[in-house]
Amino acid sequence: MKIGFIGAGKVGFSLGQFFVQGGLPVTGYYSRHRGSAQEAAAWTGTKQYESLESLVRASDALFLTVPDGAIASVFAQLREFDLAGKQICHCSGALTAREAFPGVEETGAGHYSIHPLFPLCDKTVAWRELPGAFFCLEGHGPHLDWWAERLASLGARVRILPSRGKEAYHAACTVASNLMCALVQESVALLRGCGFSQREALDALAPLMKANLAHLLQVGPQQALTGPVERGDTATVAKHLACLTGEDARQVYRGASRMLVELARNKHPDIDAESMNEILKEGSNR
Question: How are strands ordered across the β-sheet holding 47-48?
Fold first, then answer.
């Protein structure tokens, strides 16, 4: 199975090197940014292709590692060529294979979503972390299990998703990863109001965040929960709400805390959840 990449950004770089180091044959890269394809090909020891057609002819599987909004238009260009028997793949966490590749059934190609559940932040380093990462697969065609087996052989953990579960899957990833940035930014803003610099705030929060996340992943959210909601401390929660000046911040605090009330109630059935929920109501001035 010879694998070609269309797009030479962080995802294409990382997956290409991951595959090459794992012994999977990679033909090379095509990109409308010629320099990017040259760089990726040099980095992976593969070839830079001058045209889509030449890459299609040389490859059995094609990974469209381009932004989500560009996948359909790139696939439309691919449809100008014979795709029968090819494997067309994308790496979007949000899109199913059929959503990303309109009309793909008419081409005779297998079509798959192969999403690494991992932040590919540095294109020359991230590939080293992919063994042990989760890859979530979805799609249609005779090679879905083949991809799962190959990725597992490279050290990845693999889950095949039903197409109808893709939205919930990506929402879960976003809540655990992207939304954390908003929470940390609000924490930093509050500490800056106490005289911390941005760097000092992040350094101060780091041990707290790392220890809490490690414990949470070990024992689960309910057992890891501490703080004023867990102990039913309505006075402290009211003070927190009073010092949050932005409406978005107050809404996030209220909404997340209401979810914590349920965890606290399950952990401590005798907790006064009613009083806590009253404090957390929208429009409460307490």
Answer: 47-48, 26-30, 3-6, 61-64, 87-90, 110-117, 134-140, 157-160
Beta 26-30 vs 61-64: how paired, if at all? unpaired
Task: Please give the mean pLDDT across all residues of the chain.
Answer: 95
Tokens found for residue 210:
């790392």
Instruction: Tell me the CATH number at 35.
Output: 3.40.50.720
Q: Is 132 exposed, middle or buried (0-12, 13-18, 19+ CB in 10 A)?
A: exposed
Residue 79 carries which DSSP code?
Answer: T
Residues contacting 246, CB < 8 A, separation 6+: none
48 and 142 belong to one structural domain: yes
Question: Is 49 inside a domain boundary?
Answer: yes
Give 72-108 pLDDT, tens digit per residue. Answer: 999 999 999 999 999 999 999 999 999 999 999 999 9
pTM: 0.88
